[in-house]
Amino acid sequence: MSEEENRFEEAAIEAEFETGYREETRQEARRGVATRLFRVTAGSFITVLGVILIPLPGPGLLVVAIGLGVLSRDVAWADRLLQIVRRRLPSDSEGRLPRSTIATIVVLALAGVAFSVWVVFLD
Fold first, then answer.
1. Long-range contacts of 81-90 (CB under 8 A, 24+ apart)
2. What is the pLDDT of residues 43-92, one digit of tens each?
3. Burial category of 49 from C-beta neighbours within 10 Å (exposed 0-12, middle 13-18, buried 19 and up)
4. Whole-angstrom Cα distance, residue 92 to residue 97?
5. What is the pTM (predicted TM-score) of this model?
6. How many domains does the chain have?
7. Domain of 34?
């Protein structure tokens, strides 16, 4: 490992120790860094996918909300943006999505996939 990589690893482990979870060992801190990097990467990918899906038929806003939910565990701005997106999603008195909305989203998504397959393979 180069000196730069060593400094980056040490800084990441120190930051992990200071997060408030208080890992007991360096191995736990390394695992925490890897988990955090995975969540940020996955959340970013899901959020970008949702933004791409917004103008298309299907659950674009819901996918954005899921991506921001993953990101919000580690990134403060994602949590603030998630609150804005949640206000735009239809919900019942408890803040949950109604079953009819979930069913509509699933049906539209499946219809979009079926149409795409039909266009690609049967055209």
1. 85/61, 88/61, 89/61, 89/62, 89/65
2. 889 888 888 888 877 677 778 888 888 888 888 888 888 888 777 766 66
3. middle
4. 6
5. 0.57
6. 1
7. 3-89
